[in-house]
Amino acid sequence: MKVKNIEIIPVNPCEGLVAFASCTINDSLYLANIAIRTDLKNNHFRLVFPTKRLNNGAQIPVFNPINAEAYEGLRKAIVSKYLNLIGKNVEKCGDVNETREKI
User: Fold this and answer.
1) What number is the average pLDDT over the span 33-51?
2) Residue from 19, 40, 38, 34 nearest 89 by CA
3) Cα–Cα distance for residue pair 5/32, rounded to 1 Å
4) How far is CA 73 from CA 53, 68, 90, in A?
5) Do 46 and 39 touch, CB atoms closer than 8 A?
6) Which of 23, 24, 76 minimizes the C-alpha distance to 45?
7) What confidence tens digit (pLDDT) does each residue in 61-85 have?
8) Stated pTM of the model
9) Disulfide engineering: 35 pairs with which of 3, 30, 48, 76, CB 3.0-4.6 Å?
10) What pLDDT is attached to residue 88?
11) Span 3-102: which CATH code?
């Protein structure tokens, strides 16, 4: 799986949420609104994929990886890009317009 065109939008940290990400998979599928959250118990980052809330209150996934290998491939690529971004621009992480970056 080729994860490319990763875009990170940092947010002011709130309840573990630190950024949103988008990317393309194999130059043929665009994924957006992937939340990057800190997992303080395990001291690492995790991805949370978007859901749609129905009128009855139920939530259904918009998209998500179907196996651990796909999840880890996405997580490693996105978190690596996020860490690279904050490492270079720590003072700007709260300003979405200044820290938006693509590879």
Assistant:
1) 90
2) 19
3) 11
4) 27, 9, 25
5) yes
6) 76
7) 999 999 999 999 999 999 999 999 9
8) 0.80
9) 48
10) 56
11) 3.30.1120.40
